[in-house]
């Protein structure tokens, strides 16, 4: 469905970029660089390099899509949550994710695309979401493991984005991060309850951690971008180049591998407190580095195993598309009603 | 009057009132079962805003069920917890009105179900707020405020769909037609409710029916639609006689809990 209102949001930006007088145009890149160097935010009306806009749009859209698709594995357990307290917590969490999706789509819209276009790109498989969610949530404990590990990884990934250089994204991320941190605590609490329960409950918790550890540690942080992180020289060079560019523009602040290491450092002691074993025998404290060692991420394996053609990747998109298509008549009705109200409002205005 | 003071004295002495407990369970079951149905929408709604709105409503409803169940557990002498009521009863022990368990259908059926329930619930909870029991009155006031938001959501959608496109108007009318035969049960006064109402413990649901009919009539007419006049009216939910689909709803609700006997959550 086309949303007539939103293209108007994009129009002034393109106009500003194209209609700017030629002489100051030359000064614009310098001004942009100066803002970045000074740690100031870039705002929608500021000039920005096309590459910057494209990189941001790709990242924000992927992030928004991940929130929306990420509702599915947990959403499937809303009707089965084993206590009314846990049910309330899970409803609130999934509701937060819908809210995050909305903030992020709004941020993306400031870059001159509308939500309908972004959703269309998601449904056509032209834009991606976190491949972590191409993983099934098979038991109730999976909802805890997702909140604790996947959201835990997201918080570490996203905390620096609260200071990212693009203003609307940074502001959205501040709200997102506050809520995500709360989800992680709730996920940990859910796992703690299972670990303190019956042996069967504890087995369910361990099984969930066995299945969600690698998706979190591998897929939530993106490909290795340092040789130390396990990439071969070519992949590392490629990843590092992208990361360098993103860091220079202030979009990212750390390499994928730095953030991954920070995640492992935070989770290992938590797992020990829970009495759960992270499924990586290589995890041990490295006194010299002051970090935990862990098995380098075999990125290709994960990308292949959870790629676009797998059952779950297809299922996530099919579920989204079905909701979108089933709701088309509702959105059409809503648009027709709004148009009629606008028209009525206009005719009444002169009085 | 003797009955009233006897019941009040009995309640004061023991803190128990099995009739009131049974009535609160009905209201709690209405809220939980409708909340469960709305949970089935989440990730499937027509827009992300609706995923958010429906989850928000579901969350409030589960909250109402928790308060009502907890109070019932104190009144029926069993000391049961909110989770005992939700997860350890059999299908036939649930006493929600059938309208709350109606399958979601399309978005218009869900809106119609929300319309009839929310107008009833705001009116009835407000009436509870004027009752003699301070806890229940407090709950009624708070819940009525929350459901008033759900009611606005339902009113807005009824209007939007009724006046949107020919297809949405057709579906909205079909939604109303689908749910209307199940509305009378909300106002039904059996012996239990009659005793409570006579004792002045709670208002009789029939007392709010005229206001309900006026309110929903205005919304439906304002949406260019017709209030259905079904010849047949369903009943049975208050006696634990449900639709066949209800067994699946309860099985799903309780499945994890029942797979792990003795579990703590």
From TrEMBL, chain A:
Entries under InterPro entries matching the protein: Aromatic_CoA_ox/epox, Ferritin-like, Ferritin-like_SF, PaaA, PaaA_PaaC
Region listing for Disordered, in residue ranges: 1-28
Pfam family, one: PaaA_PaaC
NCBIfam families: PA_CoA_Oxy1 (TIGR02156)
Protein name: 1,2-phenylacetyl-CoA epoxidase subunit PaaA
Gene name as annotated: paaA
From TrEMBL, chain B:
Keyword Transcription: no
Any Pfam family matching the protein: PaaA_PaaC
Record's keyword terms, sorted: Oxidoreductase
EC numbers, comma separated: 1.14.13.149
GO molecular function per UniProt: phenylacetyl-CoA 1,2-epoxidase activity
Enzyme class: oxidoreductase
InterPro entries reported for this sequence: Aromatic_CoA_ox/epox (IPR052703), Ferritin-like (IPR012347), Ferritin-like_SF (IPR009078), PaaA_PaaC (IPR007814), PaaC (IPR011882)
Record-linked NCBIfam families: PA_CoA_Oxy3
Protein name in the entry: 1,2-phenylacetyl-CoA epoxidase subunit PaaC
Organism per entry: Streptomyces doudnae
């Amino acid at each position: 469905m086309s949303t007539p209102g939103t293209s108007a949001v994009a129009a002034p930006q393109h106009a500003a970029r194209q209609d700017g007088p030629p002489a100051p145009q030359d000064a614009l890149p310098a001004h942009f660089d100066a803002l970045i160097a000074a740690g100031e935010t870039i705002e929608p009306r500021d000039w920005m390099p096309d590459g910057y806009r494209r990189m941001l749009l790709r990242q924000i859209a992927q992030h928004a899509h991940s929130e929306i698709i990420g509702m599915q594995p947990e959403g499937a357990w809303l009707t089965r949550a084993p206590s009314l307290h846990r049910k309330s917590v899970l409803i609130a969490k999934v509701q937060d994710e819908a809210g995050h999706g909305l903030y992020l789509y709004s941020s993306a819209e400031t870059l001159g695309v509308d939500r309908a276009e972004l959703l269309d790109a998601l449904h056509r498989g032209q834009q991606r979401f976190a491949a972590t969610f191409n993983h099934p949530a098979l038991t109730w404990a999976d909802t805890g493991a997702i909140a604790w590990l996947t959201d835990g990884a997201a918080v570490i990934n996203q905390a620096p984005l609260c200071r990212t250089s693009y203003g609307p994204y940074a502001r959205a991320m501040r709200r997102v991060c506050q809520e995500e941190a709360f989800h992680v605590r709730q996920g940990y609490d859910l796992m703690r309850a299972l670990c303190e329960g019956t042996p069967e409950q504890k087995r369910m918790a361990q099984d969930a951690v066995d299945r969600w550890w690698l998706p979190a540690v591998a897929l939530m942080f993106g490909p290795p971008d340092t040789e130390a992180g396990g990439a071969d020289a070519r992949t590392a060079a490629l990843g590092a180049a992208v990361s360098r560019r993103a860091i220079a523009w202030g979009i990212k602040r750390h390499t994928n591998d730095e953030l991954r290491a920070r995640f492992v450092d935070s989770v290992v002691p938590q797992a020990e407190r829970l009495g759960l074993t992270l499924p990586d025998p290589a995890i041990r404290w490295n006194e010299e580095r002051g970090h935990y060692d862990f098995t380098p991420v075999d990125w290709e394996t994960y990308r292949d195993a959870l790629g676009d053609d797998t059952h779950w990747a297809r299922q996530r998109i099919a579920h989204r598309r079905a909701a979108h298509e089933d709701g088309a008549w509702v959105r059409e009705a809503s648009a027709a009603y709004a148009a009629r109200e606008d028209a009525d409002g206009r005719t009444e205005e002169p009085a | 009057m003797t009955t009233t003071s006897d019941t009040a004295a009995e309640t004061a002495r023991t803190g128990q009132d099995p009739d009131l407990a049974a009535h609160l369970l009905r209201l709690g079951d209405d809220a939980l079962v409708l909340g469960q149905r709305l949970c089935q929408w989440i990730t499937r709604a027509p827009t992300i805003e609706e995923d958010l709105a429906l989850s928000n409503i579901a969350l409030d409803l589960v909250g109402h069920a928790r308060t009502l169940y907890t109070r019932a557990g104190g009144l029926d002498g069993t000391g049961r917890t909110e989770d005992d009521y939700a997860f350890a009863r059999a299908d036939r022990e649930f006493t929600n009105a059938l309208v709350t368990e109606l399958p979601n259908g399309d978005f218009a059926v869900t809106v119609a179900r929300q319309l009839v329930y929310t107008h009833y619930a705001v009116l009835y909870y407000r009436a509870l707020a004027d009752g003699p029991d301070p806890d229940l009155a407090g709950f009624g006031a708070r819940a009525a405020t929350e459901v008033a938001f759900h009611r606005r959501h339902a009113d807005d959608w009824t209007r939007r769909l009724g006046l949107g496109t020919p297809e949405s108007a057709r579906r909205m009318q079909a939604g109303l037609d689908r749910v209307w035969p199940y509305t009378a049960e909300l106002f039904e006064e059996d012996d239990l409710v009659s005793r409570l109402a006579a004792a002045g413990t709670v208002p009789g649901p029939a007392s709010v029916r005229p206001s309900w009919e006026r309110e929903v009539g205005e919304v439906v007419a304002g949406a260019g639609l017709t209030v259905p006049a079904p010849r047949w009216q369903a009943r049975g939910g208050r006696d634990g006689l449900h639709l066949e689909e209800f067994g699946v709803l309860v099985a799903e609700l309780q499945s994890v809990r029942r797979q792990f006997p003795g579990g703590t959550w």
